[in-house]
């Protein structure tokens, strides 16, 4: 693989404001998308909660789009998703193909679709993304993008290839598409709180859903239906869920990679074997070359105080972004508060640019506009950096060792077996800091 890890680390350190805003390329005149008014055909891979939402947002993003193909490991997931989407967009659902099984994704990208939406569990993302890029499809790709170092390196390469092929690649770090946050982070990146000295990021929440085992399910089906609890499918919750806070942290830090990570974590309440092998809390310190430190913590424990946001302390002020209360504010030398608390539902006002639509819708609005306007978006570079931070935090917490970002990027540990079937039996042990080695 022609993967230049040193250049990745180097350029990551030189990131500027320009690199955190979706970048654009101008397509050649031969591009099939120049001045097009074609019907855009969408294919959905991973027809669960988020995939269903993403499909409806895609259908809502452009007048001339239709959903033509769906792929999932399970037929029932396709049917329930289809029912929901059809109820809302009866005219825009024209399903020509439904693909079921582990190779369903490949069949879908090989079918007659223009845009694919990737929303299967994270472990499958590298294969799904590679296939979509190889087939030249425009992509909406849910986070996270990989559950281990080898997977992330594949995603980095695929994202680069997407750029070379002028394919739009919008990633599911939805807060980057949230107008109040864009205004807030632009101010931070513009130096309005001065030089950042420290930061705090949180994702403290309760427990998540669990699907009881059915007699007809194989062990693999049970695990796939409960993928959150298996780190080889989800990456663990620091990678699967708290990555949103890590991404906001990185956004405010200019997408510059930290140099070292020290993490801890464990599983205190989530002790029942039905909860697989994931932790229920993590705490990670990211150390930057500038001397700044970022403190990140997350937990999934019921009856605990929730928190979800980021706070930056600079030498000229402090910026608070609270995802629970909606507060976006700066105090200090340049005090400011985001004031447009509009509920983002007014399409007319949105089109006249007086108000933005919600962030999930904005992801697709911008994806489809980029296709129509021949200016592909590629979120891959900054998005894979945030994924690397999440992986590094988990690796440090699992092993109990301080590790560098370069070590994390070059990690050889492969969580996810290449060839699984519904009869595959697969498990990884629960990591024990000080005993589990970093590889
Ligand atoms: N950006 C956000 O705010 C946000 C919110 C929720 C979920 N997500 C992400 O979206 C993804 C999906 O999450 P979800 O909540 O929809 O989960 P889900 O369990 O509801 O859906 C996952 C779907 O993928 C299917 N699937 C499993 N293995 C597959 C395979 N090999 N090929 C194709 N399909 C397969 C499942 O059957 C299921 O239908 C995850 O990566 C998650 O982190 C993002």
3D structure, described in words:
The protein has 439 residues and is α/β, with parallel strands linked by helices. The chain is built from 16 helices and 17 strands. It has a nine-stranded mixed β-sheet with strand order 15-14-13-12-8-11-10-9-17. The chain has a six-stranded parallel β-sheet with strand order 4-3-2-5-6-7, with helices on both faces. The longest helix is centred in the last third of the chain and has 20 residues. The two termini are 19 Å apart. The structure holds nicotinamide-adenine-dinucleotide. Nicotinamide-adenine-dinucleotide (NAD) binds next to helix 3, strand 3 and helix 5.
Give descriptors for this structure.
single chain, 439 residues, alpha/beta, 6-stranded parallel sheet, 17 strands, binds nicotinamide-adenine-dinucleotide
Helical coverage, percent range: 25-40%
Report the count of strand segments. Answer: 17
Whole-number mean pLDDT: 90
Low-pLDDT runs: 1-35, 342-354
Gross morphology is globular
Q: Counting H and I runs of at least 4 residues, what is the number of helices?
A: 16
Gyration radius, rounded: 21 Å
Strand order of the largest sheet: 15-14-13-12-8-11-10-9-17
Largest sheet: 9 strands, mixed
Could you write a compact summary of the structure shown?
The protein is an alpha/beta fold and 439 residues long.
Outline the fold blueprint.
Elements: H1 5-13, H2 17-20, E1 23-24, E2 40-45, H3 49-61, E3 65-72, H4 75-88, E4 93-100, H5 104-110, E5 115-118, H6 125-134, E6 138-141, H7 149-164, E7 169-171, H8 179-189, E8 196-205, H9 219-225, H10 231-234, H11 237-240, H12 243-252, E9 260-266, E10 281-287, E11 293-300, E12 307-314, E13 317-322, E14 328-332, E15 336-337, H13 347-351, H14 359-372, E16 377-378, H15 380-399, E17 403-404, H16 405-409
Parallel strand pairs: 2-3, 2-5, 3-4, 5-6, 6-7, 8-11
Antiparallel strand pairs: 1-16, 8-12, 9-10, 9-17, 10-11, 12-13, 13-14, 14-15
Helix pairs in contact: 3-4, 3-14, 6-7, 7-15, 12-15
Bound molecules: nicotinamide-adenine-dinucleotide.
